[in-house]
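Let's see one such:

===
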Amino acid sequence: MFDIRAKAIHSFGSAPRNFLSYQPQGRLVLSAGFGNLAGGIDVWEVSTRKKVAEFTASNSSHCEWSPCGRYIMTATLSPRLRVDNGVKIWWCGGQLLHVQNTDDLYAASFRPGRVEDTPPFPAVVPKAPEANASISLYKPKGGDSNGAASKPVGAYRPPGARGMGASDAYRRDDDAPSSGASTPTFKGGKPAARYIPGAAIPGAAAVPGAAAGGEKKKRQRTKNKKADVDGATEAVAKASIDEKPKAAAAPANDEDATAKKIRNLTKKLKAIDELKARVAKGEVLEKTQVQKIETEGSVRAEIRALGGDA
Protein backbone atom coordinates (compact mmCIF):
# COMPACT_ATOMS: atom_id res chain seq x y z
CA MET A 1 0.00 0.00 0.00
CA PHE A 2 1.33 3.45 -0.96
CA ASP A 3 0.48 6.96 0.18
CA ILE A 4 -0.27 9.90 -2.11
CA ARG A 5 3.46 10.47 -2.54
CA ALA A 6 3.97 6.90 -3.77
CA LYS A 7 5.77 5.94 -0.58
CA ALA A 8 5.23 2.36 0.58
CA ILE A 9 3.48 2.35 3.94
CA HIS A 10 2.33 -1.27 4.24
CA SER A 11 2.70 -4.70 2.64
CA PHE A 12 -0.09 -7.27 2.71
CA GLY A 13 2.38 -10.08 2.07
CA SER A 14 2.67 -12.54 -0.78
CA ALA A 15 -0.37 -14.51 -1.94
CA PRO A 16 -1.90 -15.81 -5.21
CA ARG A 17 -4.03 -12.72 -5.87
CA ASN A 18 -4.81 -10.82 -9.09
CA PHE A 19 -7.86 -8.69 -8.17
CA LEU A 20 -8.23 -5.70 -5.82
CA SER A 21 -11.36 -3.68 -4.97
CA TYR A 22 -12.04 -0.97 -2.40
CA GLN A 23 -15.33 -0.84 -0.52
CA PRO A 24 -17.43 2.18 -1.65
CA GLN A 25 -17.04 3.70 1.85
CA GLY A 26 -13.27 3.14 1.72
CA ARG A 27 -13.17 1.34 5.08
CA LEU A 28 -12.32 -2.11 3.67
CA VAL A 29 -10.33 -3.43 0.73
CA LEU A 30 -10.75 -6.81 -0.94
CA SER A 31 -7.97 -8.81 -2.60
CA ALA A 32 -8.72 -12.01 -4.51
CA GLY A 33 -7.30 -14.52 -6.95
CA PHE A 34 -9.63 -15.42 -9.85
CA GLY A 35 -9.20 -16.85 -13.34
CA ASN A 36 -6.62 -19.61 -13.21
CA LEU A 37 -6.24 -19.16 -9.44
CA ALA A 38 -8.23 -20.92 -6.72
CA GLY A 39 -10.59 -18.03 -5.88
CA GLY A 40 -9.19 -17.10 -2.46
CA ILE A 41 -10.51 -13.78 -1.07
CA ASP A 42 -9.09 -11.64 1.74
CA VAL A 43 -10.88 -8.64 3.29
CA TRP A 44 -8.64 -6.07 5.02
CA GLU A 45 -9.42 -3.05 7.16
CA VAL A 46 -7.68 -0.08 5.58
CA SER A 47 -7.01 1.95 8.73
CA THR A 48 -5.57 -0.86 10.87
CA ARG A 49 -4.23 -3.04 8.00
CA LYS A 50 -5.72 -6.09 9.71
CA LYS A 51 -7.36 -8.98 7.94
CA VAL A 52 -11.10 -9.00 8.65
CA ALA A 53 -12.07 -12.12 6.71
CA GLU A 54 -10.70 -14.85 4.50
CA PHE A 55 -12.82 -17.18 2.34
CA THR A 56 -12.85 -18.97 -1.01
CA ALA A 57 -15.19 -18.37 -3.95
CA SER A 58 -13.96 -20.96 -6.43
CA ASN A 59 -14.57 -20.65 -10.19
CA SER A 60 -15.62 -17.01 -9.83
CA SER A 61 -15.20 -14.69 -12.80
CA HIS A 62 -16.86 -11.53 -11.35
CA CYS A 63 -16.72 -9.80 -7.96
CA GLU A 64 -18.08 -6.49 -6.64
CA TRP A 65 -19.16 -4.63 -3.48
CA SER A 66 -22.73 -3.61 -2.75
CA PRO A 67 -23.36 0.18 -2.56
CA CYS A 68 -23.83 -0.09 1.24
CA GLY A 69 -20.43 -1.81 1.61
CA ARG A 70 -21.85 -4.69 3.68
CA TYR A 71 -22.17 -7.35 0.98
CA ILE A 72 -19.83 -8.90 -1.58
CA MET A 73 -21.10 -10.60 -4.69
CA THR A 74 -19.14 -13.24 -6.62
CA ALA A 75 -20.47 -14.78 -9.82
CA THR A 76 -19.54 -17.49 -12.28
CA LEU A 77 -20.45 -16.24 -15.75
CA SER A 78 -20.60 -17.53 -19.32
CA PRO A 79 -18.74 -17.77 -21.60
CA ARG A 80 -15.78 -17.72 -19.19
CA LEU A 81 -17.24 -20.89 -17.64
CA ARG A 82 -20.29 -22.69 -18.93
CA VAL A 83 -20.79 -24.84 -15.82
CA ASP A 84 -21.81 -23.90 -12.26
CA ASN A 85 -23.11 -20.52 -13.43
CA GLY A 86 -24.68 -18.51 -10.63
CA VAL A 87 -24.34 -15.85 -7.95
CA LYS A 88 -23.15 -15.95 -4.33
CA ILE A 89 -23.71 -13.19 -1.81
CA TRP A 90 -21.21 -12.90 1.04
CA TRP A 91 -21.15 -10.75 4.17
CA CYS A 92 -18.20 -8.40 4.45
CA GLY A 93 -17.01 -10.60 7.33
CA GLY A 94 -16.71 -13.63 5.02
CA GLN A 95 -19.98 -15.49 5.74
CA LEU A 96 -21.93 -16.93 2.79
CA LEU A 97 -25.52 -15.66 2.89
CA HIS A 98 -27.15 -16.62 -0.41
CA VAL A 99 -26.57 -18.87 -3.42
CA GLN A 100 -28.50 -18.76 -6.67
CA ASN A 101 -27.52 -21.09 -9.50
CA THR A 102 -28.49 -20.44 -13.13
CA ASP A 103 -28.00 -22.50 -16.28
CA ASP A 104 -26.52 -19.68 -18.37
CA LEU A 105 -25.58 -16.42 -16.67
CA TYR A 106 -23.83 -13.72 -18.68
CA ALA A 107 -23.85 -10.72 -16.29
CA ALA A 108 -24.58 -9.94 -12.65
CA SER A 109 -24.49 -6.70 -10.65
CA PHE A 110 -25.95 -5.01 -7.58
CA ARG A 111 -28.66 -2.43 -8.17
CA PRO A 112 -26.88 0.94 -8.46
CA GLY A 113 -27.21 3.32 -5.53
CA ARG A 114 -25.53 6.44 -4.17
CA VAL A 115 -23.19 5.93 -1.24
CA GLU A 116 -24.62 9.09 0.38
CA ASP A 117 -28.06 7.46 0.52
CA THR A 118 -26.83 4.37 2.41
CA PRO A 119 -26.41 4.12 6.22
CA PRO A 120 -22.86 4.92 7.42
CA PHE A 121 -20.60 1.93 7.82
CA PRO A 122 -19.90 1.26 11.56
CA ALA A 123 -16.44 1.46 13.09
CA VAL A 124 -16.47 -2.30 13.73
CA VAL A 125 -17.54 -4.87 11.15
CA PRO A 126 -21.16 -5.64 12.06
CA LYS A 127 -22.46 -9.10 12.81
CA ALA A 128 -23.62 -11.10 9.81
CA PRO A 129 -27.38 -11.57 9.29
CA GLU A 130 -28.93 -15.03 9.13
CA ALA A 131 -28.07 -16.97 5.98
CA ASN A 132 -30.67 -17.76 3.35
CA ALA A 133 -32.20 -21.26 3.07
CA SER A 134 -30.35 -21.75 -0.22
CA ILE A 135 -27.14 -22.26 1.76
CA SER A 136 -28.35 -25.57 3.19
CA LEU A 137 -28.94 -26.86 -0.35
CA TYR A 138 -25.55 -25.73 -1.53
CA LYS A 139 -23.47 -26.69 1.52
CA PRO A 140 -22.49 -30.37 1.82
CA LYS A 141 -23.21 -32.20 5.05
CA GLY A 142 -20.69 -31.24 7.72
CA GLY A 143 -19.42 -28.27 5.67
CA ASP A 144 -18.39 -24.93 7.08
CA SER A 145 -21.27 -22.58 7.83
CA ASN A 146 -19.74 -19.69 5.93
CA GLY A 147 -19.42 -21.72 2.74
CA ALA A 148 -15.70 -21.13 2.49
CA ALA A 149 -14.89 -24.83 2.16
CA SER A 150 -18.15 -26.00 0.67
CA LYS A 151 -16.61 -27.42 -2.49
CA PRO A 152 -13.17 -28.98 -2.84
CA VAL A 153 -11.14 -27.05 -5.36
CA GLY A 154 -8.77 -28.72 -7.78
CA ALA A 155 -7.10 -27.94 -11.08
CA TYR A 156 -9.14 -28.45 -14.22
CA ARG A 157 -8.54 -31.80 -15.90
CA PRO A 158 -9.51 -32.51 -19.51
CA PRO A 159 -12.14 -35.23 -20.07
CA GLY A 160 -9.56 -37.65 -21.44
CA ALA A 161 -7.54 -37.48 -18.21
CA ARG A 162 -10.44 -37.90 -15.79
CA GLY A 163 -10.74 -41.15 -13.87
CA MET A 164 -7.00 -41.73 -14.07
CA GLY A 165 -4.27 -41.31 -11.50
CA ALA A 166 -3.33 -37.64 -11.24
CA SER A 167 0.22 -36.67 -12.10
CA ASP A 168 2.20 -33.66 -10.95
CA ALA A 169 1.09 -31.88 -14.14
CA TYR A 170 -2.42 -31.57 -12.66
CA ARG A 171 -1.30 -30.70 -9.14
CA ARG A 172 -2.39 -27.26 -8.00
CA ASP A 173 -0.29 -25.35 -5.51
CA ASP A 174 -0.93 -21.61 -5.67
CA ASP A 175 1.22 -20.92 -2.62
CA ALA A 176 4.33 -22.54 -4.08
CA PRO A 177 6.99 -20.21 -5.53
CA SER A 178 6.47 -19.87 -9.27
CA SER A 179 10.08 -20.19 -10.44
CA GLY A 180 12.37 -20.24 -7.42
CA ALA A 181 13.76 -23.68 -8.23
CA SER A 182 14.40 -22.94 -11.91
CA THR A 183 16.13 -19.54 -11.80
CA PRO A 184 19.78 -18.84 -11.00
CA THR A 185 20.92 -17.29 -7.75
CA PHE A 186 22.37 -13.77 -7.79
CA LYS A 187 25.20 -12.47 -5.71
CA GLY A 188 25.89 -8.77 -5.29
CA GLY A 189 23.37 -7.86 -7.98
CA LYS A 190 25.14 -9.95 -10.65
CA PRO A 191 24.52 -13.50 -11.86
CA ALA A 192 26.69 -16.08 -10.11
CA ALA A 193 27.50 -17.52 -13.57
CA ARG A 194 26.25 -17.31 -17.11
CA TYR A 195 22.68 -18.60 -17.18
CA ILE A 196 20.97 -19.92 -20.32
CA PRO A 197 17.17 -20.45 -20.08
CA GLY A 198 16.34 -24.13 -20.38
CA ALA A 199 19.90 -25.20 -19.54
CA ALA A 200 21.11 -26.56 -16.23
CA ILE A 201 21.43 -23.92 -13.49
CA PRO A 202 25.07 -23.13 -12.68
CA GLY A 203 26.03 -24.77 -9.40
CA ALA A 204 22.79 -26.75 -9.16
CA ALA A 205 22.78 -30.49 -8.51
CA ALA A 206 22.66 -32.59 -11.65
CA VAL A 207 19.34 -34.21 -12.44
CA PRO A 208 19.58 -38.05 -12.50
CA GLY A 209 19.46 -39.33 -16.06
CA ALA A 210 20.08 -35.90 -17.60
CA ALA A 211 23.67 -36.74 -18.63
CA ALA A 212 22.60 -40.06 -20.10
CA GLY A 213 19.87 -38.32 -22.07
CA GLY A 214 22.40 -35.80 -23.42
CA GLU A 215 24.76 -38.55 -24.58
CA LYS A 216 21.88 -40.35 -26.29
CA LYS A 217 20.93 -37.19 -28.22
CA LYS A 218 24.59 -36.64 -29.19
CA ARG A 219 24.88 -40.19 -30.55
CA GLN A 220 21.64 -39.73 -32.51
CA ARG A 221 22.93 -36.49 -34.07
CA THR A 222 26.19 -38.22 -35.10
CA LYS A 223 24.20 -41.09 -36.61
CA ASN A 224 22.02 -38.67 -38.57
CA LYS A 225 25.07 -36.81 -39.92
CA LYS A 226 26.64 -40.08 -41.08
CA ALA A 227 23.41 -41.08 -42.81
CA ASP A 228 23.32 -37.71 -44.61
CA VAL A 229 26.95 -38.13 -45.83
CA ASP A 230 26.29 -41.68 -47.07
CA GLY A 231 23.15 -40.50 -48.87
CA ALA A 232 25.04 -37.67 -50.58
CA THR A 233 27.84 -40.06 -51.73
CA GLU A 234 25.31 -42.48 -53.16
CA ALA A 235 23.53 -39.68 -55.02
CA VAL A 236 26.82 -38.49 -56.60
CA ALA A 237 27.70 -42.03 -57.71
CA LYS A 238 24.26 -42.52 -59.24
CA ALA A 239 24.54 -39.20 -61.10
CA SER A 240 27.91 -40.25 -62.58
CA ILE A 241 26.42 -43.52 -63.85
CA ASP A 242 23.46 -41.72 -65.36
CA GLU A 243 25.69 -39.28 -67.26
CA LYS A 244 27.37 -42.07 -69.34
CA PRO A 245 24.25 -43.09 -71.32
CA LYS A 246 23.53 -39.40 -71.86
CA ALA A 247 27.00 -38.89 -73.31
CA ALA A 248 26.52 -41.89 -75.64
CA ALA A 249 23.18 -40.57 -76.79
CA ALA A 250 24.60 -37.10 -77.55
CA PRO A 251 25.63 -37.85 -81.24
CA ALA A 252 22.18 -39.20 -82.03
CA ASN A 253 20.60 -36.07 -80.59
CA ASP A 254 22.93 -33.88 -82.72
CA GLU A 255 21.90 -35.77 -85.89
CA ASP A 256 18.23 -35.26 -85.10
CA ALA A 257 18.80 -31.51 -84.59
CA THR A 258 20.64 -31.20 -87.96
CA ALA A 259 17.90 -33.03 -89.87
CA LYS A 260 15.25 -30.87 -88.22
CA LYS A 261 17.07 -27.68 -89.21
CA ILE A 262 17.41 -28.87 -92.82
CA ARG A 263 13.67 -29.56 -92.95
CA ASN A 264 12.89 -26.04 -91.71
CA LEU A 265 15.23 -24.45 -94.28
CA THR A 266 13.68 -26.56 -97.03
CA LYS A 267 10.25 -25.25 -96.05
CA LYS A 268 11.61 -21.68 -96.39
CA LEU A 269 12.90 -22.47 -99.89
CA LYS A 270 9.49 -23.82 -100.86
CA ALA A 271 7.81 -20.63 -99.58
CA ILE A 272 10.31 -18.52 -101.56
CA ASP A 273 9.57 -20.50 -104.75
CA GLU A 274 5.84 -19.85 -104.25
CA LEU A 275 6.50 -16.09 -103.89
CA LYS A 276 8.62 -16.10 -107.09
CA ALA A 277 5.76 -17.81 -108.95
CA ARG A 278 3.37 -15.07 -107.82
CA VAL A 279 5.84 -12.40 -109.09
CA ALA A 280 5.98 -14.20 -112.45
CA LYS A 281 2.22 -13.89 -112.73
CA GLY A 282 2.54 -10.11 -112.27
CA GLU A 283 1.36 -9.96 -108.65
CA VAL A 284 2.70 -7.13 -106.50
CA LEU A 285 4.25 -8.40 -103.23
CA GLU A 286 4.68 -6.71 -99.86
CA LYS A 287 8.05 -5.39 -98.73
CA THR A 288 8.61 -8.26 -96.23
CA GLN A 289 7.79 -10.82 -98.93
CA VAL A 290 10.34 -9.23 -101.30
CA GLN A 291 12.96 -9.33 -98.52
CA LYS A 292 12.21 -13.01 -97.99
CA ILE A 293 12.92 -13.74 -101.69
CA GLU A 294 16.30 -11.97 -101.34
CA THR A 295 17.37 -14.45 -98.61
CA GLU A 296 17.17 -17.41 -101.07
CA GLY A 297 20.95 -17.54 -101.60
CA SER A 298 21.81 -17.61 -97.89
CA VAL A 299 19.20 -20.30 -97.19
CA ARG A 300 20.58 -22.57 -99.94
CA ALA A 301 24.15 -22.03 -98.68
CA GLU A 302 23.13 -22.96 -95.14
CA ILE A 303 21.44 -26.16 -96.36
CA ARG A 304 24.59 -27.18 -98.27
CA ALA A 305 26.72 -26.47 -95.18
CA LEU A 306 24.55 -28.85 -93.15
CA GLY A 307 24.99 -31.58 -95.76
CA GLY A 308 21.64 -31.22 -97.47
CA ASP A 309 20.68 -30.81 -101.16
CA ALA A 310 19.87 -27.28 -102.23
User: Anything to note?
Assistant: The first helix runs from residue 134 to 138.
